[in-house]
Every structure is written in C-alpha cells, then in structure tokens.
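ASSEMBLY PREDICTION REQUEST
Request ID: AP-0331
Submitted by: J.K., bench scientist
Number of chains: three
Total residues: 776
Priority: normal
Notes: Please return the full assembly, not individual chains.
Input sequences:
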Amino acid sequence: MERHFDEELSGLKSQLLKMSALVEEAISRSVKALVERKAELVEEVIKSDEVINMLEIEIDELCLKLLALYQPAAVDLRFVCSAMKINNELERIGDQAVNIAERAREVIKEPLLKPLIDIPRMGLLAQKMVKDAIDALVNKDDALAGDVCRRDDEVDSLNNQIFRELLTYMIEDPKTITRAVELILVGRHLERIADHATNISEDVIYFLKGKNIKHHLEDQ
Amino acid sequence: MVIEIQNSKFKIKNEKEEKIEKDIRISIRDLNIWYANTRAVKDVSLDIEKNKVTAIIGPSGCGKSTLIRAVNRMNDIIPGVKVKGEILLDGENIYDEDVDVVTIRRMVGMVFQRSNPFPKSIFENVAYGLKINGFLRKKEIAERIEQSLKDAALWDEVKDRLGDSALDLSGGQQQRLCIARALAVEPEVVLFDEPCSALDPVATARIEELIQELKEKYTIVIVTHNMQQAARISDFCAFLMLGELIEFDKTDKIFTTPSKKVTEDYITGRFG
Amino acid sequence: MDIRKTKEFIGFGVLKLAAVIVLLALFTILYFVAVRGIKVINWEFLTQMPRSGMTAGGILPAILGTFYLTICAICFALPLGVAAAIYLTEYAKQGRLVRIIRIGINNLAGVPSVVFGLFGLAVFVKFCGFGISILSGGLTLGILILPTIIRASEEALMVVPRSFREASLALGATKWQTISKVVLPNAVSGMLTGSILGIGRAAGETAPILFTAVTFYSVRLPRSVFSEVQALPYHIYALMTEGTHPEAQIPIAYGAALVLVSLVLGIDLIAIIIRNRFRRRKKW
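STATUS: Completed
Returned structure:
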C-alpha cells in the first residue's frame, strides 16, 4: 500500500542526496585546491559549507517533523533516525573539507615540499567512501555499506604512511616542519572524513538490518 | 580502563542470563480455537510474564479478542466455540475438566471494550464482585471498595457520591469504574479487551497511565488496535494475523527491529 | 404539484385516515358503553348482591369473581411463564428443540379461547376433579395467557445487554448469580408490563370460564377456590341472553360492561405506569 508518509520519506532521502553531493564536491575541491595550488577553490569550499550548514538544519527539522507527525515505527523509525545521524555526519565531513581547504591556503603560499601522491589518492578514496555510503542508503545495499566500513583500514594505513614519510622530512630538516605539519593535518582530516563515512555506513546497516555493528559489538 | 570494559562485558552477559529465568504467570500452549467451522486461533503458544504488560496486536478479525477471551474462558459462553490446547495459569491448565470456571474468572479479571457498569450505584457496582464471592461484612466491603477505587484512580472523583448511579459517570470514569470492579475481587491477572476504543484521547491517556501503575500488582494482558498504545504501555507484544502468532517479543524490539516482514508491514501501516 | 409530493400526500393521508378510524371506533365503543352504563352505576350497584332474579340490585359477586379468577390465573401463569422464559433464553441450548418449543408457544397463543374452555373442562373440571370452580377457571385463564407472559418475559430478558452478563461472569459469578442478580432485576419491568397486558386480556375473556368456573346466578359470595363464581363478562352475557325481564336486565348489563371496560383499562394503565417508571431509570 502506498502511503502519504512514503512521499515524505523520499523527500527526506533526496535532501540527503543533495547534501551528500555538496559534501563530495567540497572534498574534491579542497583536495584539488591543495594539489593544483588554486586559492580561488579554497573560497568556493568555504562558501559551499554555508549551504551545507543550512541544509543540515533543514534536514534536522524535517526529521523532527516526521517523528512528531507520523510517529514512525520499525523500518521507518530506523530510517528517520539514521537520516538524522547521517545528516550530522555529512555536516562534519563538510567541516573537515573546510579544514583541508584552510590548510591548502597556507600550504600554497610556500614552495612545494614534495610531490603530492598519497594525499590525492586518499582524497579520492575518502570521497568514494562517502558516495558509496550514501548510495548504499539510497539503494538499500547493505553489502556496499559493509564494503565501505572495510575500506576505512586502507585510508588509515595511507594516513600512517603519509605521517611516517613526512616525519622523516622533519627529522632531516627542521625547516620543513611548518609545511610538513600542515600536510600531516590534511592527511588527518581525510582520515576523519573516512571515519565519518564509516559511521554513515554503520547507520545504513542499522537502518537496513536493524543490527548495530558499531564498536565491533558483534565480535564479542 | 581495560578492567572497566571487561566489567561492562560481564554485565551484558549477566543480563542475558537473567532473561532466561523469567517469571511466567500464563503459558499458552498450542492453542486452537474454532467458531463453528472456522479456526479463529491457530497453534498459538506464548508465555505471559508476571507483573508485565503484554499487548496483543493485529488487524481486525485476526483472533486477538478470541485469544484474550480464552484466558478467562469467556469464550465458553459463546455457543459453538471449541478449544484445543492448554493455557497454564501458574502451571495449572485452566481447560482441565476438573477446573471450576468460576474460580478461573475470579483469578483472571476482565475489562471490556465498551464500559459496562451495571445500572446500579457506584458502590454497588464495585461491591457486586465481592458479594457474589461471599464477602458479607460491611466494613470489609467498604474498605475493599475504597482500595479498588483508589487503585483505579477514581476515588477522588467519586468518594462523595458513591450512592449515585454509575450511569451518570462520564465514559472514561465508567471504564475506570469497570476496572475498579474487576480489581475488587483481587485477581492475579487482568485482561483488557480494547479498553480505550470508545474513549477520547484524554480519557485514554488516563487509562494508559493507570495500566502502567497496575502492573506493579497485577499481570496484564491487553488487546488493542492502537499500535501507538501498545508501544506506549506494553513490555511485550504479540502480533497476530489470521489466527496465527506471527511474532512475539519485547515491545521495543517489535517497534524498532521486528524480525518478520509481515510484522514490519503491519506496524508501519504498509498493510494490505 | 410535483408527483412525488402528491404521492407522499396521498400516502400520509391514507395512514392518517386509518389512525383516525381506529381511534373513532375505540371512542365510539367507550362512549356508547359509558353513556348507557353510567345511569345505573352507583355505590349500591358496586357493593350489593343481585336481587329479584337479577333484575335489581348490584353486581358485587361478578366483580369479585373476576378479581379472584384473575388473581388465580396470575399466581399460576406468572411464575411458570417467567421460569419457562428464563429456561428458554438463558439455559436451554439454542437448537432445534428450543425452536420447536417456541413455535408451540406461539401456536398456543393463536388457539381460540373457547378451545381453552373445553380443555379446562376436560382436564381441570373433570380429570383433576376441581369441578366448576375458581381454581379450574383460574388455571384455564392462566394457560390462556401463558404464551403472552412467556413471550413478554423472553423479550425482556433478551434486551438486557450481553455486556452485563459478561461483566458479571467475568467477576466470577455463577450463571444463576448472574441471572438472579443482574439479568432479572433489569428485565423485571419488561416482564411485568407484558404480563399485565396479558392479564388485562384474561380478565375480559368469557369463553374459557364458561365451562370451568362461572355460574349464572348466585346469591352467595364464593367461600373457597372450589366454589363456583359469577364473573363480569359472563354476567353480561347472561343478562343479555337469559332471564325474563330484558327491560330491567339490559341497563344492568351496560353497567357491568362499563365496570369491566374500566377494569381492563385500569390494568393497562398500571402496566404503562410501571413501564414509564423503569424506562426513565435505564440509560443503557
């Protein structure tokens, strides 16, 4: 049976999609600003974050409205609650993108420390994770969501690799410390983005399966 | 830090073990009920815990009323009803041949869909159950009436007019009077058959509040077609469809993560 | 005029006319009896014995006779009828047997009253040996009104809401406690109303008592239930068909008729009062 509530739910879903598209764009632009040393992209990222923040409030209000008016249960309840959490995660990813853009603004003022290879890779990975997590939500694909969770390790190890590499630069030549630290922070921001994407995937799995897989509760 | 985590793990385990030793008051075993030739209840088995509210939900005609009426053998008065299976009340099968149905009904009280006070005074309504069960001393009757009216959260509203006709009360008050009447004979279990279906939201809220308080003393089974109501007041929830028990679990589980698709479709209103 | 309105007008007109005719007939009878009867009615007429071969004096034995017969019929038929109704509605398994019993009772109500008279003569007067007496007549009248009482009582029992019975049974009451403490108190008004209307009818019957209880002329009041009595309906009949002084007898007959009609109307009035009294109290 088609319910009026279903229309509202698909409205919520498309809002989340819109938000996710903006966030993915922000990640890609912030990394691009750093790699291609484009200062104008930094400002674009900061500006788009305002839109993301507005959207977060909108989605929050929509979720509250749906909870109050429809008192959803079971799968509907899980969807609305997951949407609230995912909304929050996306906004935090947006903030991380701004952080990366701000690092980029500092980094591009100085000469290049080393050719950037791992950071763009990491950026792409993180961006793909966000995209896949949201796709898993939209397509109700719990396998994809599980896959996103596993990819987090890849990003983590890349981050460690970047850190160790930059550490050797700093030990060799303390003058590189400022620039290296900026890059280490970028790596860290990207790693955080991947964590948020993982959280989203976990919420998606809870929505789809009703199972909480956070903090590896299952393994215990 | 590590020790703490281990402790909390330990706690989780302990809780799970406690769940196994639950205190069961009513145990329904392979229950089948026929009306003439239609089987209204099919192979239903479920355990009802002591001092808990167990809700029975399901679409109209799913057999939920028939099931609850089987627990105090009220189906006996309907001609052509056949019951097969067992209902154990504190371990004793109430359908055994040597069991006195009158005793069962005294131990298992019932509140009906439409409030049905007798056309007598408020006092006489509550006193009725006591009198037919052989309570004759006036003082004792008066005390019991006061207590049951208090338990039913009606005392303050009627204490000055116990002699008035029960039919002068409002719908919600009448239903609480019926609850008081059922409580007066001190049953162990109280069955509610859609007790709020004829009441406005405020009166409904009062009855719901009351049911929550009553579970301290009684074991409660409630049939409701209002799912929000089942969610609000019950600890356990049984979902029935076409006479079959589809799912029986803790209410929070049923309303967040039901394990059957049919249950989910029903409680999210996708049914049909 | 609109055709539908015309039809409605004609329809209502016919119905109204029917009602008017019925009322007219009733009032004509009452007027006729009252005008002719009132002339002879006085205190003496109601309290004296008949004199001079029924051409003078009062009708006391006939009034008392009707009274005794009615009381006897009530004492017999009311408990039996109510008990039968309780059995049929509350206890008996609703099946073929009960249906047959119900059909039997309804047919009993359709039997001509003179047949009851013959039955009374055969069974009570002859077989039981009660002779022509108040007892025989009363029992015969009782059987005559039994179907009315049973049907009235059954209906009164059936309108007591099932929810009352359920509430009582759910409190641990036995079936008998439920019937005696909840069902009967709520059915009693309906039972009484129906029964009294039946009794009113019995008081006016002639045929059933014709062979079983009445005597044409008696100068003594009945001494026991085994005495013959005079009764108003039969008294009227006798005055009009027997005797040698019609000019003196006919006015007395009208007087007796007025008394009988008043009696029956009085009984019906009591029934109406009881019904209204209880109806005001019940709200379910």
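REVIEWER COMMENTS: Chains A and C do not touch (no CB pair under 8 Å).
SIGN-OFF: pending second reviewer
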